[in-house]
């Protein structure tokens, strides 16, 4: 088997493809590694793909559309060593019967852990107290401080992260309302504390966490009107995609001091955020898209496990069905 890793050289490559992972892949076949500190160009891929049986992709890879797949007659497996594969796989992969793998289920447990931490930090007012201590103040509990125990939590979208989060929320005795028009009613059967809800009911919970995919339909679904549904003292968490939240509307709401927000994703990433958002020090926690960072090489390990299963003719655990692909976040 000829195996290609498309991820460019650099810190991300070193974290996700340490020596022991490369050794495992070399045991499975002839391994080709991207030697550049940049992504392959489409022309380079056209030359490389002719003899490749298995391709391991990562963030930033171009989409494997019909044009590229025409140049890959031997391709038997697309294995994405990161989250959503919607921007890398294509309809043509499914038409041609090429199995698609994604490490998204592995990353999801780390993102869910982050969301749980964000809920606790936001409800218990960690930032407010920390700012006070640094300003020489010994603050007492504000009226808006709360706890996750027996609280009401609204999930906007379920997805893999949402399911992992439900597992973590079980010990807290929460009542969870889930808005996701794409899941069957039976999706929540194993969670007696979680119930299907309409959008307004989920948004009216004191704690709201966003897990919907990025699609044209979900653009700015959290806006000036829908933010009003969150009760006073409520908490909004976004670890999904920045485009789901109207930044201007969020800032306007934050400036009133009525609710709190925890963001890991933004409409415009990789640069300094709006100074008005940064000035909302007491009711925001702002992090630079790090929720899934600890997943690292564990995602690669899971993908390699599935490649081994594929080569043995065994069922794979990280397979992305066509239906799942259609509802995945689009970059």
Would you spell out the secondary-structure blueprint of this structure?
Elements: E1 2-5, H1 11-16, H2 19-28, E2 30-33, H3 42-48, E3 54-57, H4 66-69, E4 77-80, H5 91-95, E5 100-102, H6 104-123, H7 126-134, E6 152-156, H8 159-169, E7 175-179, E8 194-196, H9 199-203, E9 207-210, H10 224-227, E10 235-238, H11 247-256, E11 260-263, H12 275-278, E12 284-286, H13 296-312, H14 322-326
Parallel strand pairs: 1-2, 1-3, 3-4, 4-5, 6-7, 6-9, 7-8, 9-10, 10-11, 11-12
Helix pairs in contact: 2-13, 6-8
Notes on the structure:
With 331 residues, this protein is of the alpha/beta class. Strands 8-7-6-9-10-11-12 form a seven-stranded parallel sheet. It has a five-stranded parallel sheet with strand order 2-1-3-4-5, with helices on one face. The protein starts with a strand and ends in a 5-residue tail after the last helix. The protein contains 14 helices and twelve strands. Helix content is 35%, strand content 14%. The chain folds into two domains: 2-105 and 295-326, 3-Layer(aba) Sandwich (Rossmann fold); 107-286, 3-Layer(aba) Sandwich (Rossmann fold), CATH 3.40.50. The chain has helices spanning 11-16, 19-28, 42-48, 66-69, 91-95, 104-123, 126-134, 159-169, 199-203, 224-227, 247-256, 275-278, 296-312, 322-326; strands at residues 2-5, 30-33, 54-57, 77-80, 100-102, 152-156, 175-179, 194-196, 207-210, 235-238, 260-263, 284-286.
């Amino acid at each position: 088997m000829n195996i290609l890793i498309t991820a460019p050289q650099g810190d991300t490559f070193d974290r996700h493809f340490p020596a022991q992972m490369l050794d495992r892949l070399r045991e499975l076949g002839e391994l080709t590694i991207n030697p550049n500190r940049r992504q392959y160009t489409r022309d380079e891929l056209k030359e490389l793909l002719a003899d490749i049986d298995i391709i391991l992709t990562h963030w930033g890879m171009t989409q494997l559309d019909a044009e590229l797949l025409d140049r890959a007659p031997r391709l038997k497996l697309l294995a994405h060593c990161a989250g959503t594969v919607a921007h890398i796989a294509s309809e043509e992969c499914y038409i041609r019967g090429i199995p698609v793998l994604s490490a998204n289920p592995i990353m999801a447990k780390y993102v869910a852990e982050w969301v749980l931490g964000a809920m606790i930090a936001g409800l218990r007012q960690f930032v407010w107290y920390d700012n006070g201590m640094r300003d020489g103040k010994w603050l007492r509990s504000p009226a808006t401080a709360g706890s996750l125990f027996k609280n009401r939590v609204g999930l906007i979208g379920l997805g893999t992260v949402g399911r992992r989060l439900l597992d973590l929320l079980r010990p807290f005795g929460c009542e969870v309302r889930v808005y996701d028009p794409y899941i069957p009613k039976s999706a929540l059967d194993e969670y007696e504390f979680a119930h299907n809800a309409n959008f307004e009911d989920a948004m009216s919970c004191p704690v709201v966490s966003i897990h919907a995919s990025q699609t044209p339909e979900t653009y700015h679904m959290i806006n000036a009107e829908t933010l009003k549904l969150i009760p006073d003292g409520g908490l909004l968490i976004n670890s999904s995609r920045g485009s789901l939240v109207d930044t201007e509307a969020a800032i306007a709401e934050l400036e009133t001091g009525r609710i709190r927000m925890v963001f890991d994703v933004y409409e415009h990433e990789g640069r300094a955020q709006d100074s008005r958002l940064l000035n909302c020090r007491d009711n925001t926690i702002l992090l630079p898209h790090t929720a899934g960072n600890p997943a690292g090489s564990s995602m690669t390990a899971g993908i390699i496990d599935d490649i081994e299963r594929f080569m043995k003719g065994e069922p794979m655990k990280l397979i992305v069905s066509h239906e799942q692909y259609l509802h995945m976040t689009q970059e």
